[in-house]
Structures are given as C-alpha cells and as structure tokens.
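Dear Dr. H.,

I hope your travels went smoothly. While you were away I took the liberty of generating a structure for the chain from your last submission, since the lab meeting agenda had it listed for discussion. I wanted you to have the full record in hand beforehand rather than looking at slides cold. The sequence, exactly as received, is reproduced here:
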Amino acid sequence: MASTMSSTQEAEKTQALLLNEHKEKHFTAGEVVRDIIIGVSDGLTVPFALAAGLSGANASSSIILTAGIAEIAAGAISMGLGGYVYMLHCCFFNFTKSEADHYARELKREQEEIIAVPDTEAAEIAEILSEYGIEPHEYNPVVNALRRKPQAWLEFMMKFELGLEKPDPRRALQSAFTIAISYIIGGIVPLFPYMFLEEAREAVSASVIVTLIALLVFGFAKGYFTGNKPFRSAFETAFIGAIASAAAFGMAKLVQG
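The corresponding predicted structure, in token form, is as follows:
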C-alpha cells in the first residue's frame, strides 16, 4: 500500500515538473483579438476613405479633420454598441433567447438528468470518450470518478456533450469597450497628417503613406495572431484599404465634376 502511494506521489511530482518546464505557446486570447481586429480594421479604413473623399472634393484640412473626428466618435459608438448587442443577445437556434438563457436552461436540464437517469448519463460519458478511441477498460475509471464528483460531472456534460461554455456576463461590456477603443486608435492614424498640414493635397498624400504602412503592419499582426500567412494578410489588408480610399477619392472627383 505504501509502495503504491509512493509511486502515485512520484508520478504527480514528475507530472508537475514537466508542466512547469514546458510552457505552451498557444494563443488563447481569441475573443479579444477578434474585437481588436474588428475595431482597428474599420477604424483604419472608414476614416481613411472619408478623408480621401473629402480631399477629392477639395475640402480644407480643418473641415476634413472635423468631419473625421465626428466620424470616429460616431463609428466608435456604433461599433461598440453593435459588439455589445451581439455578445449580449448571441443566440442559439433562434433570435429570442440569449446565450445566457440558453446555457442556464440546458444546465438545469442536465442537472435533472444526472439525478433522474444517472446510468444513462454515465453511458453518455463513455460514448463521448469512446469517440476519442479510448477503450472501455480505460474510460471506465474516468466515468466512475466523474460519478463521484457531481459538479465535475455536470461541467463535463455541458462542455463535451452539449458543447456549451459558461457565458461571462462581463464579456459584452468588454467587447464593446475593446471594439470602440480599437476603432478610435485606428481612426486617428489616417487623420494624423491633417492635424499638421494645412494644405489638403499634401495631407492626403501623407495620409495615404501613413495609413498604408499602418494597414501593412496591422495586417501582418492580424495574420500572425490568427494563424494565417502574415505577409499575405498584410498585403490583403493594405489592398482593401487602398481600394476603399481610391473609390472614395474618385467618387468625390466625379461628383464634383
């Protein structure tokens, strides 16, 4: 008995040592990065296109700057509220029930099933584990261990049977704030030259250079953090921004005649 306990303790120490020595390099802040990408990409592109369009209409730098700041404020509020509403009312199966309501409903149902039909729920655990190629003699101890821990059993069923994660009530506000701030930061970049150059033609040229550089850097970072090809992502992001600004500038020239 003492030998078994000693072996178990030694195995646990070895496992802890291995985990401490090995640091995972997986990127786990996916939701935050998604919000930043949404905010910065629109923030760089929309004010950039607006400024280019107004420059094409021969507006002064002061007018372009004023219009750009107003657009950034409105865009940040709109994007932030959009992100908040989406996260707050993200739905399953229909658009009348929120994610939190759905999770709470399924949690209660799963709790009732664990109490009413524990053998059936235990069989479902075995079925889930068998899908990973685990043999009965290997997963039976796991099933029995979970049956002795109701809370862990419930969490396992919610995650692996239903594929549901407990929603964070603060996530909606965090998403709104992140998107809005990212939009503001991105939007300031194309307007920066207009703060120092009175001549709109000079300012728009500087804005194009600064914004394209920012789009290239942002696109590279986006590709790096999302697991895509960074250089391809940089080119695509800059290309989309250039097309948007060129279209706005050309439309303004066309309307002005």
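Two observations you may find useful: The chain has a mean pLDDT of 76. The first helix runs from residue 2 to 21.

With kind regards,
E. W.
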